[in-house]
Amino acid sequence: MEPIFTNDAVVLGFLLAILAFVFVTSSSQKKGWKRFYTFFPSVLACYFFPALLNWPLGIVSGEESQLYFMASRYLLPASLVLLCLSIDFKAIINLGPKALIMFFTATAGIIIGGPIALMIVSSLNPEWVGGAGPDDIWRGLTTVAGSWIGGGANQAAMKEIFEVSDELFSSMIVVDVICANIWMAFLLYGANNATKVDKWLKADTSAIESLKEKVATFQSSVAKIPTTAQYMSLLALVFGAVAISHMGSDVITPWMNSKKAFLDKYNLNSLASGFFWLIVISTTIGVGASFTRFRKMEGYGASRLGTIFIYVLVATIGMKMNIGDIFKNLELFYIGIIWMAVHVILLIIVAKLIKAPSFFVAVGSQANVGGAASAPVVAAAFSPSLAAVGALMAVMGYALGTYGAIICAWLMEYASAV
Fold it and tell me: Would you say residue 340 lies in a domain?
């Protein structure tokens, strides 16, 4: 079905109108809106309402629109710089080992979840996990593993490494997006009920609360009403960093591609992705700026602007979603849902054992499954001041994505042959 509107200027207007509607109504004191957003968090609404424009309404097309490309290539790196500006590394280190434990638990859950899901589904119906050559289901699932441990760059690497057919790859993208975002919906809902979840986990959240308090104190100490010159200075810093990130990516990526034999030998294909370097460089610039006087630009509203950029990204991600696809290729969704369930169950068990706060569970998971595009969103749902933690952990996921996905692929190949 052809979309009604294809002009991205019009589509952007729709998305910003939706975001404004959600933010205005979610801050309303009316009981009806309060009740609605109790069960349907505002961040989730910013994702699903744009999805309705795509399907079933057919007003816009997420595939034809270039807004996601714009948001992911320009606004995402800009938001990472903005959110990292006021980062307090000492305070983050003081969060303790539980943050890393939950991150690696999330990675382990994806690695073992794939083969377990394959074995369970094959025992129910072997035809669902069949295929031959490039159409082997296990091969297609390696791209999901790459995405869920690292991100799009790692997913593309898995497609090439395991020679996945284009048709199967298209189906796996749908499984990846739908299952990942169903889980993200639960995480966003859980963020609104973090106190209850932490009580059930018997978690000590004092380190997180201390970090939020320190960030809030710093923000209030440098807060001021910015002048036009100060706004321009902030925008120059941020989009100058974005420009440097793109320039760096444009230089590094071709050089990495010239070393393809070396990268193939050591399974480092993700290093040849331009997007990988764009995210790494922009995050590095933001982190570096946090050690300088630029950190005081938080007083100009840096993190607030970064959060706005993230929500625009969320809306463009939602617009690409076709909710109707959940009813197609259901046998593949069985694998994806069981896979994600293993990931979640392992997270809950470990969190319960070490009494980790729900924030670590959510961000550790999303840093793997969602990557840099959504880990800061989930972190910000707990508190905007924590978004940078999500960004930093997501970059760790990029680094581990190819290795973890290859291990998962070997296990899935073995499971499919059993």
Answer: yes
